[in-house]
Amino acid sequence: SQRSLVLLKPDSVRRGLTGEIIGRIERKAGWKLVALELRTLERSVLEQHYGEHVGKPFYEPLVEFMASGPVVAMVVEGERVIEGLRTLAGPTDPIAAAPGSIRGDYGSIVRENLIHASDSEDSAEREIKLFFPGLA
Ligand code: GTP
Ligand code: MG
Question: What does the record give as the active site (predicted)?
């Protein structure tokens, strides 16, 4: 099975949506949480996490937002979790995201789109090492 790194972004925590979102992930058959922590992210961690976006116009405000309050960082394990969590999250722009997806149900602003989930097996491996270096 696969593992994916999920971040419930500062807007999710501020708005009290983490229980709702974690519940949706937990209820998915065959998926389980293998790590979970409430944490305020250092800029250096965010620079590595969002390294692919350095130099883009949205990069600075993105890092600023992601450091603006605590996030819930998690590792989810199970059948096709990488693709499955991207589907559960919905597309980057919450207005383009279908109702039923997390971004589609709760978001309207591209930056404040509630959740991050790894976009490939390579990203998942890199991100899990970055956020949970001690995880077996
Ligand atoms: P993450 O799971 O957070 O990585 O989102 P994603 O994979 O759906 O999108 P991507 O990696 O392309 O971009 C990372 C984050 O930057 C997004 O979640 C948005 O918050 C923000 N972002 C991406 N593209 C834009 C954009 O065109 N405008 C703005 N304002 N923000 C953007
Ligand atoms: Mg991304």
Answer: 116 (pros-phosphohistidine intermediate)
Whether the predicted pLDDT of 134 surpasses 90: yes
Residue 136 has pLDDT above 90, yes or no: no
In this structure, the chain runs to a length of: 136
Determine which residue's CA is closest to atom 4 belonging to ligand 1: 116
Phi, psi of 74 (to 5 degrees): -140, 155
The count of other CB atoms within 10 Å of the CB of residue 72 is 20
Please tell me whether 92 is known to bind a ligand: yes
pTM of the model: 0.97
Structural domains in the chain, CATH included, are 2-40+71-131 (3.30.70.141)
